[in-house]
Write a structure and sequence with these properties.
Length: about 500
């Protein structure tokens, strides 16, 4: 069956918003696109429905499901979005009770028992990597076969919850591809570059690190696999030529893990000169390792690097199992700045032993580290993470919608939740006031970026009320203020 016929399978993002990710742009759901590609190659008619990016309400989701009448819906959920994802499935069942409803991604992978026990509107959970599992699940369901023969899923069998064995990860990532042709490219743009076309791409899967608060190393079972350098750069070139992509975020947890492979990617990008601005996340120790290679980063088109500093306190870094030293964090940010790239980092705050003094110390040291962008985030213990057992007695918020790194869910001994929230916002305000005081020392292109950033923070992010009215430093006078100001 091809996509010109009736939609058999609809792949959906939940209509959830927190004012974090969407402030910088609209980000296509790459994981669903990979699943869509596998299903299409197996002959299924597939539709991508990115309700999140379209800012659709649940009623609009209902109208879309009523119009398309898919045989199956697959919804991708993290912890913050899982409740809205289950609402999508509930609506799908109301509109068409025989619809197969499927959840996947990190939260359902680990919390399948809770979901299936409490939410009858969910039929199946895909656990782990989804491409092969989705195809085998649909084949079995369409044939009326025994679902217990499909590895990597969980479902109800009467009152019992059945979890089949985990599926082995795919060995050859070069053999798979997202269904790029399903993307309505006009809907995906990077706000700091008006008029841009934004793609999200992947050059590897997995994480070998030990961070105690993170979901990715658990999801990928501390494994790491990669796409070959030529295959990855070929895909970027295709996106540039066929779809006009001029900004791409590399979604990998650690794209730079294999130093030789990563250098070859940089060399190919320089040779091809694609005209794509690249954004990526990597680890502090890889930046330090690549100190002599960083000029190649910039020549390859890399403009923006996020490194997770997380804390300025070594004891907290050790608790988080970050495997880096505080002084290494500062040096990595210095190197990124020195090589004329945007440096971004985050500081995780609000642990049970947090105090007003320790939060202020973090804010002051964030200024000292001097990244271009800093985010002050509330510690969020995913219910399946290693750190959860250490803090579960301090968790006072159980609403998963608030597990978004913005809303504090842990109450420190010496602070209220409102204290933590207030200090997080104060961190943003003080950091960016300090940063913009250095505006005139920045190169021209970074000044332009910072102007765009401040405009975004004041108009489109959850920080809008905190940032608006803080005063425009030299170079920013006349920037439009957020309308109605005194929204991960």
């Amino acid at each position: 069956m091809n996509t010109s016929r009736r939609t058999e399978i609809m792949l959906i993002t939940p209509p959830y918003h927190s004012g974090v990710v969407e402030s910088a742009g609209s980000w296509l759901p790459l994981g669903l696109l990979y699943v869509a590609g596998a299903l299409q190659r197996a002959g299924y008619g597939v539709m991508l429905y990115d309700a999140m990016t379209r800012f659709h309400t649940l009623d609009e989701v209902r109208q879309t499901l009523r119009r398309e009448a898919p045989a199956a819906v697959f919804v991708s959920c993290i912890t913050a979005t899982v409740l809205d994802g289950m609402e999508v499935c509930r609506v799908a069942k109301q509109e068409r009770p025989e619809t197969l409803t499927v959840l996947g991604n990190t939260h359902p992978t680990f919390m399948y028992e809770e979901i299936l026990r409490e939410h009858p509107e969910i039929d199946v959970i895909v656990r782990g990597e989804g491409e092969i599992t989705a195809v085998e699940l649909m084949d079995a369901w369409r044939a009326g076969a025994d679902l217990s023969m499909v590895p990597g899923i969980a479902f109800r069998n009467g009152p019992a919850i059945v979890a089949t064995p985990r599926r082995a990860f795919m060995a050859d990532l070069d053999a798979i591809a997202p269904a790029w042709e399903l993307v309505p490219w006009r809907e995906y743009s990077y706000r700091p570059k008006p008029g841009s076309t934004l793609a999200v791409v992947s050059s590897s899967r997995g994480c070998k690190q030990h961070c105690s608060f993170c979901s990715q190393r658990l999801f990928w079972e501390q494994s790491w696999r990669s796409v070959s350098p030529a295959r990855f750069v070929d895909e970027l070139e295709m996106l540039r030529l066929r779809y006009g992509v001029d900004v791409a975020m590399i979604a990998d947890e650690i794209p730079t893990l294999d130093a030789g492979r990563w250098r070859r990617i940089l060399e190919l990008l320089i040779e091809r000169d694609l005209g794509i601005a690249l954004l990526l996340e990597t680890r502090v120790d890889d930046i330090l390792r690549d100190a002599d290679v960083l000029p190649l980063y910039r020549r390859a088109g890399i403009e923006h690097i996020y490194v997770g500093v997380e804390s300025v306190d070594q004891a907290t870094l050790d608790l988080f199992k970050k495997d880096v030293r505080v002084d290494q964090n500062k040096r990595a940010i210095e190197l990124i700045n020195q090589h004329n790239m945007i440096s971004e980092t985050s500081f995780v705050m609000g642990m049970p032993d947090e105090t007003p003094a320790s939060m202020q110390r973090t804010i002051e040291l964030a200024k000292f580290y001097d990244p271009d962008m800093a985010f002050f985030l509330a510690i969020t213990p995913w219910p399946y993470s290693d750190i959860y057992k250490d803090v579960k007695d301090r968790i006072v918020v159980r609403d998963y919608r608030k597990y978004n790194l913005i809303e504090p869910v842990i109450k420190p001994d010496a602070m209220t939740l409102e204290d933590v929230r207030s200090d997080l916002f104060r961190g943003f305000r003080e950091f960016y006031m300090n940063k913009m005081g250095k505006f005139e020392t920045m190169p021209a292109w970074k000044q332009a970026f910072m102007k765009s950033l401040m405009k975004l923070l004041m108009e489109h992010s959850y920080l809008r009320d905190q940032m608006t009215g803080m005063g425009a430093p030299s170079g920013l006078h006349g920037m439009p203020k957020a309308e109605g100001a005194a929204r991960e």
